[in-house]
Hints:
CATH class: Alpha Beta
Structural class: alpha/beta
Largest sheet: 8 strands, parallel, barrel
CATH topology: TIM Barrel
Order of helices and strands: EHEHEHEHHEHHHEHHEHEH
Bound molecules: 1,3-dihydroxyacetonephosphate
Number of helices: 12
Helix content: 40-55%
Oligomer: single chain
Low-confidence stretches: none
Shape: globular
Amino acid sequence: MRKKIVAGNWKMNCTLPEGKKLASEVIHMVEDEVNNDADVILIPPFIHLTGIHSLIGSSNNIFLGAQNCHQHQSGAFTGEVSAEMLISAGATYVILGHSERREYFHETDELLADKVSFALDNNLTPIFCCGEKLEVREAGKHEDLVKTQVEKALFGLTKDQIKKVVIAYEPVWAIGTGKTATAEQAQEMHAFIRKQIADKYSQDVADSISILYGGSVKPENAKEIFSQPDVDGGLIGGASLKSRDFTNIVKAFD
Ligand code: 13P
């Protein structure tokens, strides 16, 4: 059985007091109202990690993640944060390759291959993001592009390593636009990604990897998207900043 996951990527939002309030509300609502075994991951800005880690405490289904990490252990990289630091602050997941990092910070699949393997070496679970821009989809090249992203960043991993990776398919045209992929479009791409992994590794490995959908997921559309056979949950942006909406998305698995 694959793990079901709902992760909230706060991006560059919330002061520390706002973040603590949001996290406390989510933690209470999830504990009181959710009737499923999905893992919930809160992914605040780096600087809020320790504060939010202490609120999560010893919950066994709410986890902490970071939005990025550096590909070296330590050293003269001003402004960067290492995998070891994230672990020491209580994070167990890290988003790598978000389209905003690819676009604004020029992260390439080659760099991401280093980051993914480095995160795994440090016992951080990567949430590896892939997904196409609108013009690529309109040209009918979305599967080719996602295949290349997955191959370049992940296919240097061993079987045991890739089994520990979470993949998030986030079509760039659906991020923050209110324009969600249809449940069929999500399913089609998730099945395609799973098949690439099965062809390279094995069906067992492919069947064990959680693939999340991201891009304008809301309480109104979460149930339909999450009910697709190859969709194992969501990576949520805007709606993760509202405790009621985010909790209702987690409840879509009830
Ligand atoms: P939205 O849910 O705001 O579209 O963002 C998705 C996303 O980028 C999550 O990483």
